[in-house]
Each structure stands twice: as structure tokens, then as C-alpha cells.
């Protein structure tokens, strides 16, 4: 019985290592998915002016700018060479979706913690 528990711990440690390595990639994919779902448009810089602005953007960070007196939100994916662009309405929808995503992840983490307690009681 102890060997099974040791194997389970080893598997858990390996899973945490894989999770830590993939966490940043997961976060980028999740953010980009939420931006698209919220109504952000994807654009690829093509003019010299667009390329200059793109090169100054902070990668993988949602930024607020003002264009012709209106709020404009942008998110640069430097690996893909594209930008997600949206206005106030898309940004508000993104915030709503991101909050829902965080709540689901918190509930899932809570459920996993409960399962861990249930299984660990049986093997101690």
C-alpha cells in the first residue's frame, strides 16, 4: 500500500512540474480565447506606422489607449505577430468572461483539494 502512495506522490510531483511549465502558455491561450470571444478583432501590422507601434507594445499585456477620443484596448501576441483590438464594449465583455473563468478555475481547484483530502485519508 505504501508503494502505491509513493507512486501517487511521484506522479503528483511530475504533474505539478508539467503544470508549472505549461502555465504561462495556458494563460496566454486563455486570454486570447477570451479576447476573441469578447469581440476583439485580430489584426496583423502591415504598414510601417503599425509595425512601429507594434514593436513598442508590451507583449501579452492588455493595454488601454485613446484613439480619436475613444478608448481602444490592445493585446500583442509577439509569437504570432498579431494584435487583438477592441473598444469599451469588447473590454467590458472580456472582464465579465475573465471573472467567470476565474470563478470556474477556483471552483475546480477547490474540488481537486477536496478529492486530494478524500484520497489521502485512505492511504495514510
Q: What key attributes describe this structure?
A:
124 residues, alpha+beta, disordered N terminus, elongated, 3 helices
Low-pLDDT segments, ≥5 res: 1-8, 16-24
The number of distinct helices, counting runs of at least 4 residues, comes to 3
Question: How many structural units, i.e. domains?
Answer: 1
User: Assembly state here?
Assistant: single chain
Structural class: alpha+beta
Distance between the termini: 9 Å
H/E element order: HEHEEEH
Q: Radius of gyration from the CA trace?
A: 21 Å
The largest pleated sheet is described as:
4 strands, antiparallel
Q: Residue-averaged pLDDT, rounded? A: 80
Estimate the strand proportion.
15-25%
Helix content class: 55-70%
Strand line-up of the largest beta sheet: 1-4-3-2
Principal-axis shape: elongated
* Secondary structure tally: strands: 4
Description:
The protein is an alpha+beta fold. It has one domain. Helix content is 66%, strand content 17%. The chain is built from 3 helices and 4 strands. The chain has helices at 2-38, 48-56, 88-123; strands at residues 41-43, 63-67, 70-77, 82-86. A 4-stranded antiparallel β-sheet has the order 1-4-3-2. Strand 2 and strand 3 form a beta hairpin. Helix 1 (2-38) packs antiparallel against helix 3. It is elongated, with a radius of gyration of 21 Å. The relative contact order is 0.13.
Amino acid at each position: 500500500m505504501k508503494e502505491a502512495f509513493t507512486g501517487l506522490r511521484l506522479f503528483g510531483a511530475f504533474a505539478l512540474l508539467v503544470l508549472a511549465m505549461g502555465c504561462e502558455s495556458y494563460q496566454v491561450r486563455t486570454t486570447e480565447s477570451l479576447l476573441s470571444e469578447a469581440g476583439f478583432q485580430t489584426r496583423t501590422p502591415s504598414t510601417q506606422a503599425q509595425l512601429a507601434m507594434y514593436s513598442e507594445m508590451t507583449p501579452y499585456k492588455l493595454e488601454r489607449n485613446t484613439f480619436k477620443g475613444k478608448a481602444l484596448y490592445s493585446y500583442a501576441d509577439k509569437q504570432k505577430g498579431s494584435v487583438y483590438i477592441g473598444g469599451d464594449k469588447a473590454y467590458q465583455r472580456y472582464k465579465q468572461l475573465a471573472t467567470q473563468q476565474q470563478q470556474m478555475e477556483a471552483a475546480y481547484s477547490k474540488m481537486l483539494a477536496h478529492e486530494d483530502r478524500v484520497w489521502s485519508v485512505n492511504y495514510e
